[in-house]
Predict the 3D structure of the following.
Amino acid sequence: MKLNSRKKKRSRVLQTTRKIGELIVNYFSKAWDVKTQDKPVAWITVFTPVELLYALDVYPIAPEHFGALCSARGTILDYLKEAEKEGYSQDLCSYSRCCLGYALSGLNGPMPAPDMLVTFRNACDVYVKWWQSLHIHLGTPMFIGEAPYVLTYDDLNNYVLDYVVKQLEQLIELTQNKFGVKLDMEKLVNAVNLSDKASELWLQTLKLRRVRPCPLGGRDSASDIFPLVVMQGTEEAVEFYDELLAEVRDRVKRKEGVIEKEEFRLMFDGIWLWHAFDIIKYFEDKGAVFVHEPYSEAWAFRLDSSKPLESIARKVLSMGLNTDIDLRMEKFADTIEDYHIDGAILFSNRSCKSWSAPQLVTAETLNNQLNIPYLMFEGDMADPRQYSEAQVKGRIDAFMEMLSES
Amino acid sequence: MQIQRKMREFSRDPTSLLRRHNDGEAKVVGYMCSGIPEEIIIAAGLQPYRISNIGEHTSSLTPSFICPFASAVLENILRLEDLFQGFIVAHTCDPMWRIFDILKKKVNKPLFFLRVPHNTKNELSFDFMRMEFRRLKMFLERNFVTEINNNSLQSAIELCNHTRDLLRNIYLLNRNNEYKVKASDYFSLVLASAWMSKQEFNALVEASEFGSGKGQGNIRLHVNGTAIYDLNLITVIEDSGGFVVSDDLCTGSRYFWDNVEPSQDPLSALTSRYLTRTPCPAQNPLDDRLRYLSDMVASFNARGVITYAEKFCDPILYDFVHIRNKLASDGIPSLLVDYESPTQEINRIRNRVEAFIETLGD
């Protein structure tokens, strides 16, 4: 039987995942409450130490998350066009164009104006250029931290680590001086503990995806990361992951998978296509479930509250894209075995050059050394104009045919 | 004029120089960025050689939306690997960072990744960068069984400073509203200085005379961008009635403008020079870069600025918005010209440059 002639299958999104929408609404509404109370709001790039900001009573907002949200809700184009009108090229990161467009069009929306701009160059160098641009347009004070590329694990204990720890100390000093606040160590330890707990719960949940049938799919993981992006160090995040783990455990116990008949287990390498989210369901309708994404795992990092700053510095350094390609490939190899992966989908994302640039070499490793077939397609994570749905779905059809025949 | 002709020949076929180094049994270490301290390579008894995009198109190993310059450089490295003993990659922008990843999987020569701080003004950046230079020194010592000491570093610094002095003196001939040296000539000199041995280059330049260039009456322009190896991008300006008087290119003044100051600790002196040199588009603070650009435009009496942007070059494409706005507030018009392949797009580029120069002449 031809795969594309199959009837659409029922696939299940977790009940806990459905709560993400409410969490996001509350999160942004709280940002406005904070602003109304004259407390500081920081715009951050993701993989910036939010635990530290919470401990300093600074409310963090991630414009990358806002970009994903606007893309998913179909409201991104106005912001993109606003940035492009100012002269920002369509070849630049769509998250940054969305954010710059939002800033240039009067900051009318869920993100209150920032009192501070904080970034650490770890996922990409675009952060530096984006934040400079925001700083010039808004005139807001800015902190640009550097998390050097981790070449070996030694860097997590040598002068590279010291460099990041000292920058965290600078960030604390800058924030204290700017807003007249004082870092409360007890609060920091508490935030670090809560962040660690949320990470632990999420990692345990992800581990359960090794089970057949897989209890948590791509549509869940893509949404479920939200609390780890901007709410690390809060009780709400821990509560969410506690509940999620319980539901996933229950599914495992009942041997209930994401789809009725799980035929293929896939890995997704890249950021999700927020404007074309149904692509995940398209795979599921063909009997394929996503069981692993480096993107989902990137947000979790175990912290040690006895050395909070060191621990946070290691986290800032260790985010997936900031670790050496050999270390990343080693992880790929382990994952493929542990999660029983049949094939890999590599999303060549026009907006994320840092992720996409070495992907053809990644693909070679997958194919030649790990014997994993792959499909690579091009598009943009947030800009729907840079994506051809029919073309991509045609290629997915061909890939799934190939998988079913092998 | 003989030297200019010679240099232009080199800039058309730099591989001939690379082969000459190999014939002379020099050990050649390739690098791509003007932020790499050549002095440390020279102090190790090795020949630094700046790898360009000349002769190659984009690589099949990178996606279509990656900076075509970086991609072509990658291809040149892979094609010419046998002529090198090692490579040094600097972490400036995302494509260069990831080229290191790809090279790690593709080349069999010693490979070094220099982690350059993106925030040059942070007081912590000095110590970090010095540690990275120290790591580079140790990498060269270990892989090429050599010792780099303070004396060899001091000599290399003096040698490179002398090259910079020579280049800067020629460059400064165009100041005070003068039209002494054509940019296509001095850019080919700058390129040759990054390909030849510094001793040979210095001797050649010292034996030559500069300053008889013509161009009086043409529109004085500043060129902004990253690395330009295809000098047709410069001659197209000259042919259109422009006269390039200043630049902030990685293959121009950014490479030679600042000297290394004397110090008891050469590694610290190098760190200081490379951290505070002409601002790089990939680094922070941008204000320094905007100020530098305005200052260059003012001191060389440029009437307009042309920004050359490789397609998909993030640093230049973000900066352009702010450069345009800053120059507009200074009353200086600017033009952005983006391209993937200058050779194939030269007529389109010529039309845009001509139109811009015409508006300035009115």
